[in-house]
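Notes from the pairing session

We agreed to fold both candidates in a single pass and log them together. This is the raw record for the first candidate, unedited. Please don't reformat it; downstream parsing expects exactly this layout.

Candidate A
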Amino acid sequence: MKVLIIEDEKPAARLLQRKVEKLGLQVLELLHSVEASIAWFETQPHPDLIFLDIQLSDGLSFEIFEAVAIKSPIIFTTAYDEYALRAFKMNSIDYLLKPIDEEELEAAVLKFKSRSETVVHPSIALDFETIRKLLINPVDRTYKQRFTLKVGQQLKMIPVDTIECIYSENKGTFLHTLDNRTFLLDQSLEQVEQELDPGAFFRVSRKFIIPLKAIKEIQVHSNSRLKVLLPTYKGEEIIVARERVGEFKEWLG
């Protein structure tokens, strides 16, 4: 069996590679980001099996499947909580909870070996989307009400209802407020997304999260996309990614 490992932590990826190779599997590649994974799938035949982490260096791994139709079975390697794991079970996708136990790894591999290698999994895209929504919006969850930031020698509290947008730029994550001030966050955009109420905030692209209350205007853009204008933010254009336009319109209600 030829397998692919997608894991953003390089030591963890190499450790998993050694464990997998002990089981007699051939590791084709170690990938660490959404961008690298998309590029790999666009030029390489799909492997027999993928070991997939959820949180990668530049986004959630589900973004890979928005760009590429994956036909390979998946074993998730995840540190997410029990609620997320119930989502995996519901969708009949195997998972390994970090730190990965060798016996559980072997059992998961045997499960996939028992399947026909010619089976195609046409419902996998739907499964990923279902899991992504469950991870971002689990039941009975509380959401962040304010960000506490260090500004000089002081701590400043930014209520979420004063946020105009949150965006990534030059490997940093920034919070822009309705009074036209910008602050650097010590979290990734993906981490921030999971803390915000999805009824009030929407991830319009890989670079931007915007709140409903801050939208000033929405314009039709090229290639079936939308452009969002905000009251004070004058940086990079905020374009709703084409694959997210439908969900964005539903979110707008």
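Candidate B (folded immediately after A)
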Amino acid sequence: MAKALPFHINLAGPTAAGKTAAALAIAQAHACEIISVDSALVYRGMDIGTAKPNAAELAALPHHLINIRDPLQAYSAAEFVTDAQALILEITARGKLPLLVGGTMLYFKALAEGIDPMPAANAEVRAQIELEAQRLGWPAMHAQLAQIDPATATRLAPADSQRIQRALEVYRLSGLPLSHFHARANAVGEPGPGAPLIALEPQDRAWLHARIAQRFDLMLEQGLLEEVKTLRARGDLHPDLPSMRCVGYRQVWEVLDGQSPQAELRDKGIFATRQLAKRQITWLRSMPARQVVACDAPDALAQVLRAVREVLEARA
């Protein structure tokens, strides 16, 4: 069972839906501290491609779980749950409202339902899987995964080496499929009564697609290529790390590796971001307790503020 937590508000939505602006509007109206629910914002030195809040936005009110990991390090859903639970208690004790904002739906789900402890990474088992993959190929390893964990294999591409390796590792260490840890037997990610979920979702998918294109163009103008070049220049990062597999970073890395022409970067980056948004919206629609606000409505911010006010008034 998920740990009972003090009252907090969840604000979720796909990439480019306007979550940062909505969160800042809520914070101006109420005494809040923001907890980031984003698996990319945890990484230091990855600012442009993650659309990380700028220095002024970060300084305007307390933000948590941003810039807490080096790109060489992993950050799991289980670690997020531990960190977020502690922060919700601390923020509440300070007399502030914990406001959880982001688009990593697995984190919202894990916090709402709880998460079974997964086995930690094991270098020996990973090396063994890597050797097998070199001999058989990752599609064969994917087929192996399909025999022991069809649910996980179905959502992974046969060439998704990092995630296939982790799923096989978990099974070999625990004897349980990864899907056992990620998907509980109960309903999907439905927040309890003490954690209302406001979901920013577009009525018109074309509106979101236009926003995604506009934002990716801005990232390129701001120096996304240079940001990834700086990360590569460290010499210790590689494209299979979770950080470097983030949307945008993966596409730029492929260009810099000569695997993809730079002329195709914009289209590939926008396409990958659209696919991410599609997955995020699918996750959101599996959360029936959410309160939907049309992020493409002219009065979207006013609707968000009204939803928050009504929730707070109902508790008073």
